[in-house]
Task: structure prediction
Amino acid sequence: GFATRREFAGAADQAAQAGANALDEAHYRSTGERRLEPSRAEMLAEQNLAAQSLSGVTGVAIDASADQVTVELTANVDVGLLRIFGGGDHLVVHVRAVGQPREDTP
Result:
């Protein structure tokens, strides 16, 4: 369960960071301000998640603004041996990750 949760958290983080690469280049060139193109950020995050081929995902929410992209995943995880203690067949895992455009460092 915990290893699977860690896997999903890593996948969400990777997708959020991929979305954070959708810099609005025209705005950056004219103002020097880093902000995202929200629709492109969502598309990049979605493509990244699809490429990861995660199994067991029951819900995906991707939302982007000019400042950040948020990726949320919900999944059912088989609890395996925990069933002997009266647990159900699966555990619901929910993870959330946020990516933001990176600032240049000198």
